[in-house]
């Protein structure tokens, strides 16, 4: 998130399907997210609050210019919305000054010709019903009532 | 003649012998020096996907084997006896006498001698393919036009019959597969393709039907245009020129729509056929997309083609418009005649909005290598001939042979044309890349 901001890319939102420093490292001080979020109070992020069908619904309504995804096999669904979608296989690619440039070039190349997303939007269907896509993204969350 | 070409990709006009070899039951007779025919077989057939000599080609073609004595005293008598002997020994339906440099330079009247035989009712023609007349693609056109001029007579038109002038036999390593794909696509539109070369193409009988065609289809950047012009003058046959290799979903549909409109195929039939073909293509495209989207970080994103204009533009459009790659420098190697160059450049400049690669016309591999070394693109995908493996390796890039000569592939019926041809190219390219990392 901070690398993207260094590159001048505005963040609409971010979500983690999993973030649990205690379970992963046995030590809450290994929490890398909390300090960043605290420093930058306006960083929009959430942890483990949605299923993919909800994310798909949300992306369809938000229509961002770019989606970065780190979960295998979910990039395709986002690309089907016609949104340039990049799978960040190696998160260390943006490390250091050279990494920052490399990261920016990859994103720039991808955004300059998102042909796959264009073709998928035109020719590939998503598995979700039109009823669901018309609903608000979190309308199926259980409420207090 | 002060220039030198390093690592040639196209040979001399006598290479038209391979066009004869590709016609079913046709026999080439070479009026040329020793070694010419075999070297051309090696360069255009053997060291080009190991295509083999087939029925009448290879190392034992009929020939006059002109040496010093024949150059000094002429070789017309021996040509007569060789042709006479060929009729007795060789089992063929069509004989084509091809002249090499030496017999043309010493002034043998080959045309007259062959005409004498033809007057006796033998299907034999003469093609003036001396090496100085142009490259082997020009040699192909000379052979085809010779058969048209000397053998064909006007016949009644057959509605829907289409003569196909496309991938040049043997010189385009994937000619047999490509022509089979064109046949399938035109059948799909309800037309009757006259393919003329390769398996089940009909030999001399199919060639005699050429004047009966509803139209001629030139599916190539420039090779074949002189043939269509000749047929237009001789038999009044209209012709359609589609200069780009129809490969993948977008370009193949565009090609079929263009042909359907020209041939006045029923629009609803065309729509239905295209929908079925596109549905199949996009089924695999969607599944393949996951690989492209998820391996993005690790894959090279820029590509170079070093090929004839027909392949170069087609492949550039496929990789750019359907797979999101970006074109780096593109090299056109088939020395297109001047009148076609502006159109070829326009084909590259419209690859996709905002994306226009640099294009260089050159047949010289040395120039290609120098240019690639000095360019800023690192680790490109290079789609070229077997000659280009070394520079791909030097630049840390990837390579797939899609043009002759190639000795790193064995090719039979592989096709890079049509919807499936597009999938096949992507399979071959990325299989070769994955093989280096898995």
Which descriptors apply to this entry?
heterodimer, A: 145 residues, mainly alpha, 2 domains, two-stranded parallel ribbon, 8 helices, 4 strands, globular, B: 438 residues, alpha/beta, Rossmann fold, 5-stranded parallel sheet, 4-stranded parallel sheet, 13 strands
**CATH level 4 superfamily of the largest domain in chain B:** Nitrogenase molybdenum iron protein domain
- Main beta-sheet strand count, sense and barrel state of chain B: 5 strands, parallel
Instruction: Give the topology string of chain A: H per helix, E per strand.
Output: HEHHEHEHEHHH
Physical arrangement of strands within the biggest beta sheet of chain B = 11-10-9-12-13
Instruction: Provide a count of the helices of chain A.
Output: 8
The beta-strand count of chain B equals 13
Structural class of chain B: alpha/beta
CATH-scheme architecture of the largest domain in chain B: 3-Layer(aba) Sandwich
Show the largest interface. Answer: A-B, 25 and 26 residues
How are the strands of the largest sheet of chain A arranged?
Answer: 1-2
- Quaternary structure state of the chains depicted: heterodimer
Q: Provide the helix percentage of chain B.
A: 40-55%
Number of structurally distinct domains of chain A: 2
Give me the Rg of chain A, rounded: 17 Å
Report on the structure:
The complex is a heterodimer of chains A (145) and B (438). With 145 residues, chain A is mainly alpha-helical. Chain A has helices at 2-6, 21-25, 33-39, 52-62, 75-79, 96-112, 115-123, 130-134; strands at residues 14-16, 45-47, 67-69, 85-87. Chain A has two domains: 1-49, no CATH class; 50-139, no CATH class. A two-stranded parallel sheet of chain A has the order 1-2. In chain A, strands 3-4 form a two-stranded parallel ribbon. Chain B starts with 16 loop residues before the first helix and ends with a helix. Chain B has helices spanning 17-21, 36-46, 68-73, 76-89, 101-105, 110-119, 136-151, 175-188, 203-208, 225-235, 248-263, 267-294, 309-321, 338-349, 365-374, 389-394, 418-435; strands at 26-31, 62-63, 94-99, 124-128, 161-165, 192-194, 215-219, 239-242, 302-307, 326-332, 359-361, 381-385, 398-403. The radius of gyration of chain B is 22 Å and the shape is globular. Chain B has 17 helices and 13 strands. At the A-B interface, α5, β4, α6 and α7 of A face α12 of B.
């Amino acid at each position: 998130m901070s690398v993207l901001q260094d590159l001048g890319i505005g963040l609409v939102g971010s979500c983690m399907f999993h973030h649990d420093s205690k379970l992963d490292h046995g030590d809450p001080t290994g929490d890398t997210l909390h300090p960043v979020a605290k420093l930058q109070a306006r960083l929009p992020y959430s942890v483990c609050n949605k299923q993919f069908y909800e994310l798909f619904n949300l992306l369809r309504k938000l229509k961002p210019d770019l989606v970065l995804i780190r979960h295998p096999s979910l990039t395709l669904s986002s690309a089907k919305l016609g949104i340039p979608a990049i799978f960040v296989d190696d998160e260390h690619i943006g490390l250091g000054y050279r990494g920052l440039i490399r990261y920016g070039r990859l994103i720039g190349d991808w955004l300059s010709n998102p042909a796959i997303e264009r073709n998928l939007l035109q020719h590939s269907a998503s598995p979700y019903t039109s009823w669901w896509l018309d609903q608000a993204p979190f309308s199926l969350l259980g409420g207090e009532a | 003649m002060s220039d030198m070409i390093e690592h040639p990709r196209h040979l001399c006009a006598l290479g038209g012998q391979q066009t004869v070899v590709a016609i079913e039951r046709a026999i080439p007779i070479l009026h040329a020096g020793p070694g010419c025919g075999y070297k051309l077989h090696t360069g255009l057939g053997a060291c080009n996907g190991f295509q083999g000599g087939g029925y009448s080609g290879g190392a034992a073609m009929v020939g006059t084997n002109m040496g010093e004595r024949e150059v000094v005293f002429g070789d017309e008598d021996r040509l007569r006896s060789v042709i006479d002997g060929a009729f007795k020994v060789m089992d063929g339906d069509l004989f084509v006498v091809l002249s090499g440099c030496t017999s043309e330079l010493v002034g043998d009247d080959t045309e007259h001698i062959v005409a004498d035989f033809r007057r006796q009712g033998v299907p034999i023609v003469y093609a003036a393919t001396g090496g100085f007349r142009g490259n082997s693609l020009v040699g192909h056109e000379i052979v085809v036009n010779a058969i048209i001029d000397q053998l064909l007579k006007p016949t009644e038109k057959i509605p829907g019959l289409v003569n196909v002038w496309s991938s040049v036999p043997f010189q385009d390593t994937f000619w047999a597969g490509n022509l089979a794909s064109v046949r399938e696509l035109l059948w799909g539109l309800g037309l009757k393709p006259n393919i003329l070369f390769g398996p089940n193409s009909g030999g001399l009988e199919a060639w005699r039907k050429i004047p009966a065609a509803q139209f001629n289809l030139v599916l190539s950047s420039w090779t074949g245009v002189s043939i269509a012009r000749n047929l237009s003058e001789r038999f009044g046959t209209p012709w359609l020129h589609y200069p780009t290799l129809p490969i993948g979903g977008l370009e193949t549909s565009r090609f079929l729509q263009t042909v359907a409109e020209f041939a006045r195929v029923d629009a609803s039939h065309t729509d239905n056929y295209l929908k079925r073909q596109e549905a199949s293509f996009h089924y695999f495209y969607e599944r393949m997309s996951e690989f492209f989207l998820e391996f993005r970080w690790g894959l090279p994103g820029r590509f170079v083609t070093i090929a004839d204009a027909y392949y170069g533009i087609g492949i550039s459009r496929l990789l750019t418009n359907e797979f999101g790659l970006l074109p780096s420098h593109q090299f056109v190697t088939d020395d297109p005649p001047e009148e076609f160059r502006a159109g070829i450049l326009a084909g590259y400049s419209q690859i996709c909005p905002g994306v226009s690669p640099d294009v260089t016309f050159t047949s010289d591999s040395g120039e290609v290598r120098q240019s690639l070394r000095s360019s800023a693109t690192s680790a490109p995908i290079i789609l070229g001939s077997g000659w280009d493996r070394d520079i791909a390796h030097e630049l840390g890039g990837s390579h797939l042979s899609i043009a002759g000569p190639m000795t790193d592939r064995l090719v039979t019926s592989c096709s890079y044309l049509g919807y499936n041809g597009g999938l096949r190219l992507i399979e071959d390219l990325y299989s070769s890349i994955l093989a280096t990392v898995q």
